[in-house]
């Protein structure tokens, strides 16, 4: 890993990344579908899903059946939408905002120039990134987050696109759960593996670009 930085949280193993990628790309998923897609044992899939549920990145539900038979357990990506919101993620967002307010009072600093809601979104995003082993630095305009050195720099090159896509989805979910104008637009392409920049955007900028 770059500078010995540990990879933590939901993407600490590539097997978990693969599972999360499958759930993000199409929800809901069953244990059987994930087992077939990954080749992992069902018990291993369950262990990874439990970690993802505990992290607030996957939600579990029970299938609604209209025919006889035992309903299956379904797994969906937590995206912050009303029908895909995780209680764990909601608690994390609230706690991040409280800690952010406390830190700003102690340091006598203001929040993001983008406003109160965006400030709380950045609080939640920074805590998520730190929990995942990154060292985030938010730009002055609040619309760019530097993640260099990336703890995934030593990952196999063929794994990097999925790693970046999965983590972009997680960041989008965190920002949506916090609620506000910011969204994660992309992970910028870099010349070196250890370089990583996440570009954020606001509803106003998005609307202006469409106009």
From TrEMBL:
Ranges where the HTH arsR-type domain occurs: 15-58
Any Pfam family hit: HTH_5
Region feature (Disordered): 63-90
SUPFAM superfamilies, per database record: Winged helix' DNA-binding domain
InterPro entries: ArsR-like_HTH, HTH_ArsR_DNA-bd_dom, WH-like_DNA-bd_sf, WH_DNA-bd_sf
Name of the protein in question: ArsR family transcriptional regulator
Biological source species: Microbacterium resistens
């Amino acid at each position: 890993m770059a500078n010995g930085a540990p990879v933590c949280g939901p993407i600490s193993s590539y097997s978990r990344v693969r599972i999360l990628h499958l759930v993000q790309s199409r929800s809901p998923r069953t244990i059987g579908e994930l087992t077939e897609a990954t080749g992992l044992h069902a018990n291993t899939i369950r262990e990874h899903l439990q970690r993802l549920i505990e992290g607030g990145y996957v939600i579990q539900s029970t299938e609604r059946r209209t025919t006889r038979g035992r309903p299956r357990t379904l797994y969906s990506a937590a995206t912050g939408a009303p029908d895909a919101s995780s209680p764990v993620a909601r608690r994390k967002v609230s706690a991040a905002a409280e800690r952010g307010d406390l830190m700003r009072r102690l340091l006598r600093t203001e929040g993001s120039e983008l406003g109160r809601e965006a400030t709380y979104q950045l609080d939640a995003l920074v805590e998520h990134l730190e929990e995942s082993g990154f060292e985030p630095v938010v730009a002055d305009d609040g619309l760019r987050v530097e993640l260099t050195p990336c703890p995934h720099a030593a990952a196999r090159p063929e794994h990097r696109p999925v790693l970046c896509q999965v983590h972009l989805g997680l960041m989008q979910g965190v920002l949506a759960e916090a609620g506000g104008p910011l969204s994660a637009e992309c992970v910028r392409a870099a010349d070196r593996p250890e370089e990583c920049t996440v570009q954020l955007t606001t509803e106003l900028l998005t609307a202006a670009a469409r106009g």
